[in-house]
Design brief:
With 535 residues, this protein is mainly α. It contains 23 helices and no strands. It is elongated.
């Protein structure tokens, strides 16, 4: 019995490894722009469902799609309704795996593995290698299926197991519970379906017993979205709850109409082909459930909002001031771009400030804030660059042209300031975790330098906003003071190191912090000089 059990575990391992190989190969072959595809979706619900299905079919993992969706909702790129549409589509897309493994390819497993291996080894183009990886992964997946089937075969002669299967075949709630627990533990709905098909193929589970398990499988797969939403914002949590409710409500409906559902599956599936019947039941459940929910999405979203109350103030990566309708009026369009650039600059400087404050007194919330908002700065850089590039096709007079060019340079410097804010936040966490201690003198010098850097950065942004050369000159002066004081701190620090008044590890970290702070000041100086016209 132990040999069979180990063979079963080995089969699961091969199945999951093959599925991972297959999914990775498909993703590489399709290109690494799946997230961009989801971002570009329209507000049409049907389009979101279609995209969710396609992306999941490519990734061969609904969990990856739901995690991606939760991330996009958390970033403010998708609404709750759009995110829910993608998740409904992901449920449909994940049934492709079950349809593939339902094919009876036992006699061709070694051929598939050999062909896939040869393609990976000999193909000259990357796309050919990726396709070979897909075929190799599918072959290994089917090998795992075959191993699982052989391992469970002896259970047909074990009365206790047969009695248990008979019991839960007549008890749908127990079947749902088993399917849910299996999927939560394995973290793969496709693997659970694979086990189900392998056991059913040996005559251990009838269709009536398999359907409740696959319903539970759909509920269990929600754990991925739930885990991804734990540290996300309110809207992302609502997406996860919507995913759970979608599958739970659907399962309840299908249990109520189980007898008719079984008849439908039997009617559309080949007689005696239990593997295909289970695959078709899986597909039918998710497709019909999606069709049932589509007309009621708006009231369903309101229900989710009542279940998870609160004001959804998510992190948005979108610009606030840019208006493409103003591109034909460059003077107004440029003024809007200035507002957005200054907003971007304030976000970057806030990250720097929080990063510096966290160095002096470590604060997990401040570090988390910086790491969550750094992508906002990066996104705004892309959005503003695209906006200003579109504006360049319009007729700009000389003064507007100079201002336009200056803004393009400024957003690059601001993005770098944001990067240094992120670095400072990560350094503060490292300082806390590694228990790095600075001398009191070093702490005081860092605190003073921090204030000088923030003052210089704030003055530079003020000069950019007002296009004021006098303020810009003052900002340049402040940046020079930062440079001189930074040099003074370095000298003092080296003296402390030589006199053994400072821990060498802390000394190394101190020098890195000084470099980051100086570079924030350097980029601020660049912005001020843009206003002066000396860039």
């Amino acid at each position: 019995m132990l040999v069979y059990f180990l063979g079963f575990l080995g089969g699961i391992a091969l199945f999951m490894y093959g599925m991972q190989l297959m999914g990775d190969g498909l993703q590489k072959a399709a290109g690494a722009k799946l997230q961009k595809i989801l971002e570009a979706m329209t507000g049409v619900l049907a389009m979101g469902i279609l995209l969710g299905a396609v992306v999941t079919a490519v990734l061969q993992a609904s969990g990856a799609t739901t995690v991606m969706t939760v991330g996009l909702v958390n970033a403010g790129l998708l609404t709750l309704k759009q995110g829910f549409g993608i998740i409904m589509g992901a449920n449909v897309g994940t049934t492709i795996t079950a349809q593939l493994i339902a094919f009876k390819l036992s006699n061709y497993i070694t051929v598939l593995i050999f062909i896939g291996f040869l393609m990976q080894l000999l193909a000259k183009r990357r796309r050919g290698k990726y396709l070979g990886q897909v075929i190799l992964g599918f072959g290994i997946l089917m090998l795992g299926m075959d191993m699982m089937g052989r391992a469970v075969m002896p259970l047909r002669a074990y009365p206790g197991f047969v009695d248990f299967i008979s019991y839960f075949s007549g008890n749908p709630l127990l079947g749902i519970f088993i399917g849910t627990v299996m999927t939560v533990l394995i973290q793969s709905s496709s693997a659970t379906i694979g086990i189900l098909i392998a056991m059913a193929g040996q005559g251990l589970i009838p269709l009536e017993g398999a359907i409740p398990v696959l319903l539970g499988d759909n509920i269990g797969t929600c754990i991925t979205a739930v885990l991804a939403s734990l540290r996300a914002n309110l809207t992302a949590k609502r997406v996860a709850i919507a995913h759970v409710l979608f599958n739970v409500i659907g399962s309840i409906i299908f249990v109520i109409f189980m007898r008719w559902f079984v008849e439908i599956v039997m009617y559309v599936s080949p007689a005696g082909d239990i593997a295909r019947q289970i695959a078709n039941a899986h597909s039918a459940f998710n497709i019909i459930n999606t069709l049932l929910f589509m007309p009621f999405v708006n009231p369903f979203i309101k229900l989710v909002q009542r279940i998870v109350p609160g004001d959804a103030e998510g992190i948005s990566l979108r610009p606030v001031y840019l208006d493409k309708a103003m591109l034909n009026t460059p003077s107004i369009g440029l003024s809007l771009a200035v507002k957005e650039v200054v907003r971007m600059g304030n976000l970057a400087c806030k990250n720097v400030r929080l990063g510096m404050e966290s160095i002096h007194t470590f604060d997990t919330d401040k570090v988390k804030y910086v790491l969550e908002h750094e992508p906002v700065v990066d996104s705004l850089e892309r959005e503003i660059t695209d906006y200003l590039t579109d504006m360049s096709t319009a007729q700009l007079d000389e003064s507007l042209s100079v201002r336009h060019t200056g803004l393009l340079h400024a957003i690059n410097d601001i993005e770098r300031i944001g990067d240094h804010g992120e670095t400072l936040a990560k350094k503060s966490r490292m300082i806390f975790e590694d228990e790095v201690h600075f001398s009191q003198e070093a702490k005081e010098e860092l605190a003073k330098l921090s204030q000088m850097v923030l003052c210089a950065s704030s003055r530079s942004l003020e000069a950019l906003e007002k296009n004021d050369k006098a303020i810009a000159a003052d900002a340049v002066r402040l940046c020079r003071e930062v440079k001189h004081f930074q040099k003074e701190i370095r000298k003092n620090h080296i003296t402390r190191l030589n006199e053994h008044r400072c821990d060498p590890v802390a000394g190394f970290v101190m020098l890195e912090l000084l470099i980051n702070m100086k570079r924030v000041s350097d980029h601020s100086k660049n912005i001020a000089q843009l206003v002066q016209g000396t860039f």
